[in-house]
Amino acid sequence: MAGGENSKGNIEPEKQSLLNHHKEKHFTAGEIVRDIIIGVSDGLTVPFALAAGLSGANATSSIVLTAGIAEVAAGAISMGLGGYLAAKSEADHYARELKREEEEITSVPDIEAAEVAEILAEYGIEPHEYVPVVNALRKRPQAWLDFMMKFELGLEKPDPRRALQSAFTIAVAYILGGLVPLLPYMFIPKATDAVAASVVITIAALLIFGYAKGYFTGNKPLKSAVQTAFIGAIASAAAFGMAKIIHP
C-alpha cells in the first residue's frame, strides 16, 4: 500500500523495533523465476525436438545447426515479445482500473466506503471495529485508493520496468536453453552421432532444470525433474519418429 510509508511512522516504537529486527524469508522473485522457467523450458524443448527431427530426416550436422540457431533466434524474439506484451497488458489493465476506482471514490464516496466496510467485515471485523478504519481511509484518499485496488480488485501496482525486464529475461533464458541441445552438432559432423549426444546432454539439462524449477516453485524437486525431462523426451522422440516416417 502506497500509504505504508506514512503509516509506518505511526507505529508504536516498541512494535517498530520488533519489525526492524524481524526479517521475513519469503521468496519474492516470483515473476523473474516465472520468466526464466518459461524461457528455459521452451528453449530446451523446442530446439531439441527440431534437432531430433532433422537428424531423423538424415540432415547433416551443419544443416541441423543452422536451422537450430535460426529457430533459437526467432524463438527468443517471439517469446520475448510475448512476455513484453503480457506485462504491458497487465500494466495497462492496472492503469485503467486505477483511474476507474479513483473516479468512483470521488463521485460515489459513500458506496466506496460501504465496500471498504464489506471487505473488512469478511475478515470477521465487527462494525464498531471497522468504522474508525473506514473513516480514517476517507481522510486519506491515496491510501483509500491503494486499499481498494489491493483488497477489492486484488491488483498489485506493477513495476514500470516489468515489461522490458520480462522480455529480456525470457529471451535470454530461451537462448541459453536453446543452445544446449545444439552443442553436440557444433563438434560432431555426423548428425546421427550428434543426436545421441544431444539427447544425453539435453535430458541431463532438463533434469537439472526441472529439479531447480520444483525447488524454487515449492513443488517436489524430484517429481518436477522427472516430469520436465519426460516431456522433453516425448517431444524429441515424436519429432524424430515423424521425420523417420516421412523421410525413411
Automatic annotation (TrEMBL):
Q: Name one GO biological process term.
A: intracellular manganese ion homeostasis
What is catalyzed by this enzyme? Fe(2+)(in) = Fe(2+)(out)
Q: Which UniProt keywords apply?
A: Ion transport, Iron, Iron transport, Membrane, Metal-binding, Transmembrane, Transmembrane helix, Transport, Vacuole
Segments traversing the membrane: 167-188, 194-212, 224-246
Write down the Pfam families for this protein, in alphabetical order. VIT1
This protein's gene is called LOC111318159
Q: Which PANTHER family match?
A: FE(2+)/MN(2+) TRANSPORTER PCL1
* Protein name, per record: Vacuolar iron transporter
Q: How does it assemble?
A: Homodimer.
According to its UniProt entry, what is the function of this protein? Vacuolar Fe(2+) uptake transporter.
Q: Where is the signal peptide?
A: none
Q: A single Gene Ontology molecular function, please?
A: manganese ion transmembrane transporter activity
Task: Provide the Gene Ontology terms for cellular component.
Answer: vacuolar membrane
The way this protein sits in the membrane is described as: Multi-pass membrane protein
The protein's location, in the record's own words, is:
Vacuole membrane
